[in-house]
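Below: protein 1.
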Amino acid sequence: MKPTLFISDLHLCLSRPHINRVFFTFMERIASKAQALYVLGDLFEYWAGDDDLTDTFNSQVISAFRSLTEKQVVLCIMHGNRDFLMGEAFAGACNAQLIADPSLIDLYGTSTLLMHGDTLCTDDTAYQAFRSQVRNPAWQKTFLAQPLAERKVAIEKVRAQSEKDKTQKSESIMDVNIGAVEKLLREYNYPRLIHGHTHRPAKHMHQLDGKTCERFVLSDWYKHGEYLRCDESGCSAIKL
């Protein structure tokens, strides 16, 4: 049986041509041989709205996804904290399914919970407040009513402020809260957990109520590409 692949936090943008090339090569040579590809958030550095589909670079990414699905690879995409404005028009152009955060799937017989991961960083209260604001449908409707160029300027300002704020936060605040992780694992009946967001790739083993739960944290793609490959024998991270 073909493997299922997971990626997140690619932050694709024109200013990082090396990683863009890695992505397109990955799509053509590796993802095309998979059963399914799951993108667990932050595919793009940011997404200003589905009226940006015709942007040249965005069109290239969309074309790569559509070519993948034409090879009978199932494509599922989850919103991240950078691209939560991706909508049904984007999904339709890619021939992808937008999946909820979190989503519980049967992965080769193992119950597996998929997340972007930002909701697990509960110690970062300022970020969680911001997340609640921008995920509000009324806020999104008002924001998307603005001209595309103005939205991009506004997003760039928010990104610059966010990077500045990160320098004043401790590393622990920006990581997951273990209590939040364990609460979620109990809620979903002790599944395997796969998520991104924190840029701290690792495999964790949680001993919880007499049960052992695997937690895989996906890598960001700032320095190199990396994906999680899962099949009947388990999951392993592979660098590109």
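Below: protein 2.
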Amino acid sequence: MTAELYKMTAREAVRSLKRGDVSPDELIDAALARIKATDRAVNALPTLCPERARKYASRVSRGSLLAGLPIAIKDLVEVAGVRTTWGSPIFADHVSQHSDVVVETLERNGGVVVAKSNTPEFGAGGNTFNEVFGPTRNPWNTVLTAGGSSGGAAVALAVGQVWLANGSDLGGSLRTPASFCGVVGLRQSPGLVAHGPKADAFDTLAVDGPMARNVGDLALMLDAMVGADPRDPLAVHPPARSFSDHVAAPTMAKRIAFSADLGSLPIAREVKEICTKAVRRFEGLGASVEEACPDLRDAGAIFQTLRAAKFVTGHAEKLLKHRNRLKPEMIWNIEKGLKLSAEDIGRATLARSALLNRMAAFFADYDLLACPASAVPPFPVEQRYVEEIEGHKLDNYMDWLTIAFPGTLAGCPAISIPCGFTADGRPVGLQIIGRPRGEAALLEAAAIFEADAGLAQKLPIDPRIGHS
């Protein structure tokens, strides 16, 4: 029985825990066995903490939300007593003395941390590799990237190493790897999930969010993450009705807008075709689908400026002290920020507010906005980032991720759900963006789409060893 536990959904595993049919220790054993059997091929969970997991499991209440379910935590998030490297050689031997609020909340709700998931250095970039642990590989074809920066989390879920995992999202770091690995990732509205303590406590660009194999499991994970905390000044109290309840009895949105390129972005032809075909499912599910998009032409420039300023806040000191230990993309991003003037940042801040207002006006007419979750399907893992799409040359290592930026800038919840595969078997995700604080309606529509598409049943998979 233990050998088959990894195939259960998170909700099935939690129900078994609550009934006493299985113990947290048995699930920890199942997770460790699956990690041992699969991680050599994919390198998703390089840091394990089984002793700590068993200690926490011994005092978990069976009545708690997760009831002792083993989970993975991204290696950007501190877990007390566990190695946290941020994917950087600067912190290769760092052991955390405290846990992030995200971890405290999950543990209070019955989550048991069994491992840390791989991430690019400081979460920078959409390909999960670093000088500490090496690259994480795509489980559908191990010569391909898993995406990033929550790549280790997405892979761990896809191959059944854990039932739930957390991630974070600044410029698509939950959505891109979810798309690349055929799982579900949600960037929720800022403040819904408390995190910290952070040096930049008032930042609204980066959030911590849930990843899962299916929408129902993701709703459960989100329920276990939400809540206010005094160390996060933006955090809000949980909603009166759980997200799991919403997903259990979903209602379809009435009007859905769709854009294959958010107006003008370069998108791989096959990705466009798959997402265009997939979104038409909503018509058979009771919604109207119209081709429409707000004006988002300046989203890339706004995001790149504000991101660069954020990199100065978070990493300028590292550039001064450890320049020779930072990857080139980090150096470029920090230096871009250092070159900004107050006027540059002020203009970007005002432009962000104008973009938010355009999105708000758009959502007065439409319930949801759908588009591709990633501009391209998974690419070779050795390729650091995408430099060209359909003949369009890109400017820098972040440009290929621009389709994720509008949701971030407008503070909107955005989910990536599996919607198909390329001709050569690479997963493609559909991104659905909702109104700010509109997670419930977004998850309901995603759950209905998922049930109709039937792709969640494909997981978990055994890693498929590819050849260059």
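The longest helix spans residues 299-322.
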